[in-house]
Each structure stands twice: as C-alpha cells, then as structure tokens.
Fold this sequence. Notes:
This protein is mainly α. About 75% of the residues lie in helices and about 0% in strands.
Amino acid sequence: MLIVGQIRHRLELTAETDESEGDNPEEEKMSDQGEMSTQPTEEMHTPPESLGEATPTQPQGGRRTQLKILREGVESLSRDVGHLKKNSEANAKKMEAHLKSLRKDLEAHAHSRELSKHLMSHKADTARLEQQMASLRKELASLRSQMAKEAAKSRKQQEAAFAKFAAKARAAKPKRLKIKLPKKKR
C-alpha cells in the first residue's frame, strides 16, 4: 500500500506541474486522461511526510524530467517487487521444509506417545500379573500347610489304629500250637 501511495503521489505532482506549465495542449489532454484514471481516493492518499520522503525543495524540471523520474521509480518498484516475490518464494520453500520437519517431529512424538502408552499398559499388566502370582503363592502356601496338617492328622490316626491293633494283639495271647515237623533225611 505504501508503494502504491508513493506512485500516486508522484503522479499527482506530475499532474500539478503539467497544469501549471501548459506547454503542449496534446500532453495536457493525455495528462487529464491519465489523471482521471489514477486519481487517488482520500483513503489511499498519504502525504509525503508520512512516506518518509522530504518534500522537494528545489524546483523540478519539465515534464520529461518528471516522467523520467517516474519511470525510474516504477522500474525501481518493479525490481523491488521482483525481489520481494523471489524472497517470498524462498521463504515459502523454507516454511514448507520447516513444516515438513515439524510434521516428522509430530509423528515421532505421536509414536513415542504410543510407545509410552504401550509401556504404561505393559507396566500395568506386569503389576497385575505380579499380584496374581503373589495371590497364587499364598494359596499354594496355604494348600501346603493344609496338606501337612492333613498328613499329620492321618499319621496320628494311623498310629492310633496301629496302637489299638497292637494292644488287641497283645491282650489276646493265642495258644501256641506245637507242630512237629518231619525230620529230614539226610
């Protein structure tokens, strides 16, 4: 916007100078037509002080000189626009490369988040399995102690049964039978 305002200001200066000189009526007609098409609106018009330019203190030359200055300004502006376009294209390429690297970083971060979720899930599963193992060990220990108690109880019952049987066997003394064995021939 600033550059367009500068061009319009220069055109206004050229048009004002043309009106004051009035050398050639044909050039005046052309300047009137050009002035109508390039008249700035009040919104677009910026005074030269705001553009950072000093108002010219020396009197400007004729129309040709002003047109030459204007052409040089337009050429300068077109070069600046070309440089700006080239720079913006280079910046766009840099931004694309940066965006691509950011996407890769985001994918890596998402992948690491998935891995961390998987790791947390694995840790939770491991903790759950360890709790199950601990409870199974407790049950196994209780079963072993119960089996040991049952084995001790059954031994006591067996010993008691053997003791009863031995007591009955001792209490009843059987008669001894004498059996003669045949002699062996030698």
